[in-house]
Write a structure and sequence with these properties.
By secondary structure, this protein is mainly alpha-helical. It has helices at 2-34, 40-60, 70-89, 95-102, 115-122. Helices cover 73% and strands 0% of the residues.
Amino acid sequence: MIITTVAALLNQLAIVVPSLIAGNAILTGAVNGAFNVQKGWVQHLISWILAVIAGVCLALTGGLTVFAATWANVTFGAVCGLIAGGASNGLYDWSAVSNLINQFYPLFGHKIPGEDEVAEAKK
């Protein structure tokens, strides 16, 4: 029973999360274009909000049913929306996330992306 539940969960996630990512990118672009949103942080915020709403709507309409209780499905849909919002939003664009990721490049003997351009600009 547990293996069947995990398999059903993975099947749903393999469809739901990529669909949320693609749909959220299109919907966010449409909203940002319609309202002429220019500030980056507002674009990110709109993307996250729309992705969470889409995830919750999917859970409420039965597109994402993992648990028996409705509140658990809605919570799981919101988490999937957060993940999809981050993926379609470009988490690396946020300086805190890119700084964290850039800390791992030297560990593997690689240069940090953009490091050469910064060094040349200082010359």
